[in-house]
Specification:
mainly alpha; Arc Repressor Mutant, subunit A; two-stranded antiparallel ribbon; 7 helices; elongated
Amino acid sequence: MEEKVQQCVCINFCFCLGKIGAGMYKMLQAAFGESCLSRSKTFEWYSHFKNGRRSFEDDPRPGRPYTSHNEEIVARVREIIHTDQCLTIEEVAEDIETALGTCQKILTEELQMKHVSAKFVLRLLTAEQKDDRVSICTDLRE
């Protein structure tokens, strides 16, 4: 991101010197090499500065906020799965009113679960669960 801002500063500098777009793009390629902005982006930024823009940062973009994957949602998914482990990902996603991919990501990455024989189970046992298994096995052995 820092490099993009540096390139925008260079584009603004070239604009102030009166360079035209094609020459400016060649200079950016020579200075930044492979990480140079594309030709269309270079001309787009040149146009912004020509129209009076002074900021080097991108404009904020409208769109859906990133709220579908937060701690509250993860806790709700955990609660739903612990209540009924035989639910499908589609049913869980429908219950929490979120996208299927988000629900799947929460189950697999956040909660470390995988789908085994129609149940969601933990991939990794906690230290307490491992100790419980060891104590149960030693009791059965005796």
